[in-house]
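Task: sequence in, structure out. Protein: Glycoside hydrolase family 88 protein.
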Amino acid sequence: MVAVLLIMAPLSQAQDIKPAEVKKIMKRVADWQLDHFQDLYSGSTKPHHQLDWTNGALYIGMVKWAAMAGDETYYNWLKAIGEGNEWKLHRRKYHADDHTVGQLYLELYRKYKDVKMIEPTKEQFDFIMYHPARTSLTWKSPYHQSRWNWCDALFMSPPVWAKLYNITGEEKYLDFMMGEFKATTDFLFDKEENLYYRDESYMGKRDHNTKIFWSRGNGWVFAGLTNIMNELDSQSKEYKYFLKIYKKMAKKLLAIQTPEGHWAMSLLGQEFYPTPETSGSSFYTYGLAWGINKGILDKDTYGKAVQKGWNAMVGHVTEEGMLGYVQPIGAAPGKAWADKTEVYGTGAFLSAGSEVYKLYGGE
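Result:
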C-alpha cells in the first residue's frame, strides 16, 4: 500500500521554497523512480521499452537532475541505457515519439564527448531530412504521424533537431525543424486561446461547452519550447519565433492556473476537471520558472504561479518518493489518482525542480 503524503493546498502554497528542500525532494523522487523503473504503468502488461517516449521524457528530467546531484550514479544509469541500446533511437524512423530518447543521447555527448553516442541519431535525422515525409497534417490521412500533427510531438522531436544543430553547427538541422514546427503550429495553434489542440480531431469539439485543450499536451509543448530555445542564439530570428509563442502561452497559463496551483486536465474546464494532474502541471511550472530565470518573464507577475505550482506538485509526492496524480497514457482530459504515477511525470517533476532550484537561489 502506497502511503500518500497529503498537504493541504493553502498550507503548501504559503510555504517558502528553499533550494536545499527542492534538491532533497528531487533526489527522493529520482531514487524512487530508479527503484521502480521496471514497474507496470498505465495498465500495461509489460514494462515500457527503454527507448519508448514515456521513458524518453523521464530521461530528459533525469539528466537535469544528474547535473545537479553531485553523484555519478545517475549519469551512470543513464549512460547504461544508451550503451545497452547501442545509442539507437526507437523503432519508427519518422515518428516523433521514437525520437525523444535522442535528447538524452545528445546531452550525454555534451558531457562525455563520445561521438558514438550521437552517430545513430545524426544518421537517422539525415535520412529524414533528405527523404522528408510528405503526408498531410490531417489526423486521418495515411501515415499521418510521420509528421508532427499532434501537439505533444513538439516536445518529442524538435528539441533533438535543435540540439543537433547546436552541437554540429550545421544549419540544415535547424532549417528542417523550423519548417516542420511552423507547419504544426499553423495547423494546431488556436490564436484566440493561445493554446494548442492536441490534434485535428479536437477542433470544433466542445466539452461542457468549452474548447478542449489537453493540459498534458500543452504542457509538453511549453516544455518543448524552453528546451528548443535553450539551444538557440537569443538574438536569432528562430529564437524570437519561439519566444513569441512562449510568451503568449505563458500569459494564458497565468490566467487559468487553478487556486490549488495545478492546471486543469481540460485547461478551460476547471470546474469539470477538479482532479489534479501533475505531469502537465510540472511542465508548466518548469517553463514558467525557466522564463523568470532567463529574464523573459517578470518575477513579480509570474513568481507566485511558480511557487503555487511547485508546492502543489510537492504536495502530491508520497513519503517514499512517488509522484501521484499523473494521468495515464492518453490523448485527452481524463482521470488521475493519488496512488498512480507514470515515468514521464517523474521526468516533468525533475525538470520543474531544476529551474525552481535556480529560481530560489540554488547553484
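The chain is about 55% helix and 0% strand.
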